[in-house]
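<discrete_fold_record>
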Amino acid sequence: MKKLEGYSKFFVGFTAIVFLILWFRLAYIQLYSSALKERAEQYIVEKKIVKPPRGLIYDRYGKILVANEPAYDIMVIPARLEIEDTQFVASLLGLSLEEFKERLKQARQYSKIVASPILTAVHPDRFHKIQTYLSMIPGFTFRKGFIRKYYNNHLAHVVGYMTEVSKEDLEKDSFYMPGDFIGRTGLEHFYELELRGRKGIRYVLVDAFGRERGSYANGKYDVPPEPGKSLHSTIDPDLQSFASSLMEGKRGAIVAIEPATGEVLAFVSSPDFSLDSFWHSNRSSYYRKLLNDPNKPLFNRGVSAAYPPGSTIKPLQTLFALKMGIINHYTSWFCPGAWVRGSLTVKCHGSHFLPTPKEAIQHSCNSFYCEVFYRALSRYSDGHRKALMEWKKYLNEFGFGRKTGVDIRGEKPGLVPDTSYYDRMYGTWWKPTTIISLAIGQGEWLATPIQLAAYVATIANGGWFVQPHFVREIDTFILEWDRIKIDIPQEDLQHVKEGMNKVVERGTARIARIPHIQWAGKTGTAQNPHGEDHSLFVGFAPLDSPRIAVAVMVENGGFGSRWAAPIASFVVEYYLKRKIDSSRLWLLKRVEQPIKYEQ
């Protein structure tokens, strides 16, 4: 009996031990065996592309202009999609039923088994509300991304906007996937390859509902994303904001450059637009609104709009005439109030008696420059064709008739006409009087504001043409920009600078005088056959050691002294003194007024 009892205890103990082993084994399987757990719950491993943080953009003082904020893309896997109430889901996403169906159709066309975005760049606050519902619907998944955050509201044409990639973008570059964003204009476009970084890869466990259930193999096979490179720009943010305020309610552009380096200090194209709105849920309708706006806010007037430069180029015409030997520093011609050659008459702003080159610049004497140009074109015995080509070559050195190479999308070369151009217009019978309007910056000659700024910076810089640019460094890599020395005798440059100083002190831009600052400039009025003339001004300051060169163009602003010259003077004064003298506040108040344009 005792022996039987012993067997019984042994059996009970053995059974208990086996039970415990099985229990621990089951617990192990449930808690620790990822392979069996995945198989039991039908998990699959999915490859997820990880977007890299886009490169930041800094101002010239090292403060952030453009950063990133977290956002989310809502994705769908069409093969897994199970929607009971389509209208509810569409409303939740902020889409009409038709829009939602169209996006589903596009997703199916892209792939039935690979996730593609149905809604992109969703702000976190909105995303969390949407996620609460969609996470319970099979086929929906999510991807973390970014939206741009802007710390200056006046940089739309400098920074540029971003949009979702198009079909053409996808075909052109395998880097992009549906729902990605790409720079379309400005620095975002020009430096897209540097800013976009390199994508990473995550391998994740996904359940039957498309929900992530953790990392595969503890991230052993993941590839981290490589952040985009940061741009260190040349923009002075306070000057940028101030210059923008001067152009409120006007159409036109301001370009300010540091002459010695070619760095763009401020760049305004007016009207502009809101970069923040390109990340809102209604960005498509906002973009359509901008496209239909008659004032063309998307048009970058600073680099893409070409206007006759008017009298702003008379200092350059003086340098050309001195180079050709047509005049010297003391040459003078009588100005009776017009230049007359046969039946052709070009009116002047008044009778300037016997102006020398300095005085011709000071008073913007049309008669003097028509005579100078006429004699330059008549210089050679074989006719005016060779002289015109020499003139064009000289202008090209200063950046006219070609792209300056500024690092922003959309730059136009303007136009400096040559012999072939006039042959197409007139045949071969044209002569100096046919093209005499070029003498005063009219006719077929067209220039962009960036060209005007680069040209006056070259004069300020002692004859060095420095390629204008917006970016100084990419991460820690310092960029090199072209510096080209133009062959100009320094005494000629000094003579022209003194003439430009007279413009501001006692000439056509007296209204632009700045207390305690000696500076130089030249007004211009560009004829406009479609309405009132355009107001132009170029200048640099201080006179003896220039730190800023500026070009201003105000569409339909009339004489250069009415709008462009005072605006330029305020840009210069603010940059050099960081305030406006109290004696000039009345003028500041006047130029801040909008211009009433006819639509």
Observations:
- The chain has two domains: 52-196, 237-591.
- The longest strand covers residues 64-76.
- The radius of gyration is 34 Å.
